[in-house]
Amino acid sequence: MKISTDTAKKPTLDKDLDKIVRIEEAAGFVSRGFAGPGLALLFLAAAAIFAALYIGAGQSGLFIVIAAVLGGYMALNIGANDVANNVGPAVGSRALTMVGALLIAAVFESAGALIAGGDVVGTISKGIIDPASVASPDTFIWAMMSALIASALWVNLATIIGAPVSTTHSVVGGVMGAGIAAAGFGAVNWPMMGTIAASWVISPVLGGVIGAMFLAFIKVMIIYRDDKIAAARRWVPVLLAIMAAAFAGYLAMKGLKKVVSLSGWQILAIGAVAGLATYFGTKPLIFRQSEGMENRNQSLRTLFHIPLICSAALLSFAHGANDVANAVGPLAAIVHTAEAGEVLAKVSIPFWVMLIGAAGISIGLVLFGPRLIRMVGEQITRLNPMRAYCVALSAAITVIIASWLGLPVSSTHIAVGAVFGVGFFREWFTSRSSHRREYLARKYERGRKENNQAEAGEQPRRNGMAPEESRRRVLVRRAHFTTIVAAWVITVPAAALLSAATFLVLNTLF
């Protein structure tokens, strides 16, 4: 039989086509790694052009354009690292998809920065450096540029290694290091630095304790009850009311300070009204939503999905209102000093400067945020909607308590500390709780009778493990714990050393 030429050549042609397809797939895979940095560079170029449109020609204009690029770079890193704390628990608990979380966070971060962002900021970052000690405008500009470069590089490095760090502490360290290099150790407000160092411990411990307390309440009062649905109908509206009150107070205290100034009693009243309205509004909704639900934990989780989505949006709004100053505070100080030729402790932030900060945070979140979102939400410990609810509520309540007590705390440390607290509490509760043992004994007995599969005298088990095995379970990944805590401890000194070295180099060259 004679084989046609086309038929004979077909296998070779197919092989060539397959090679081309594989090359295209490989090229596409490699190029995806460069898409994020490429888009980030486009944003920084746009920030430079945007700043140049508002600033005239001359040396001061060049300084401002360079500072705008550095401020945009810092904003990108804030979005990549800091915003993960707000939406990570919701993503880890599957209440939000990654795309939904990025969309909600980007919109509400920008809204918080532009609507409620502070219009006045301490250029020496919370009183760390006395402006009078850096009287020369040129020296001050180089110091602020050094602080921006150092803090942005440190946050970028932390993001690469997968450690959520405090961008506020990074800026504080950067400003402190540049101030010491410019004016000596006497320029630093050391008592203020002492309170910031204390917050390294206060923030995560307080967040972890509050998160664990709420999880303990949920476990004892809802999860380990024979009739979970009846318990949920009784207590979930109360928990949602507490969340509404906490977030109303949180936003009134931290997120709307530019829009309206409120006293402590007014903030308390706003929280109480929000809590009562939520309780009476959600009680019939929870009753209807729980009708027909199976009496198991999986059913309870659906009751917390919407509150988690709301908490992610509200935390993002408040974060944008507060932490945008970490990116644009030094930039605003450089703009004012370059234009006016004087050094002030506080300056107004121009709208175009705030716009660069808001856009940078959102773009950094979308391009580089998923890595840290997965770290906070999935890799430290396993979260479900009830545990994620405890983390989100702890973040809001801890900030309120710390503000009333006058303690400087980090929202990053609080949120991650709450995740650790929830995980470590589960370890303790799993091995020691009498409530859990009694519940498992009842569950085991029901299962033995229904399935007739357990042998007489076998110990109660959960997920195939006896209590002795359960006590040895590790529910928090220790490698992430040590990495993150180490990054927290060295953030201020690392940013300070990097900033001081940067200042000395810039001062020598220019």
Automatic annotation (TrEMBL):
GO biological process, one term: phosphate ion transmembrane transport
Segments traversing the membrane: 39-57, 63-83, 95-116, 140-163, 170-188, 200-223, 235-253, 265-282, 303-321, 349-368, 388-407, 413-429, 481-506
InterPro entries: Phos_transporter
Positions of region (Disordered): 450-469
Alphabetically ordered keywords of this record: Membrane, Phosphate transport, Transmembrane, Transmembrane helix, Transport
UniProt main location, coarse: membrane
Compartment(s) of residence: Membrane
One function term, GO molecular function aspect: phosphate transmembrane transporter activity
Coiled coil: none
Source domain of life: Bacteria
Keyword hit for Lipid metabolism: no
Pfam families listed in its UniProt record: PHO4
UniProt membrane topology term: Multi-pass membrane protein
Any single Gene Ontology cellular-component annotation: membrane
Similarity remark: Belongs to the inorganic phosphate transporter (PiT) (TC 2.A.20) family.
Protein name stated in the entry: Phosphate transporter
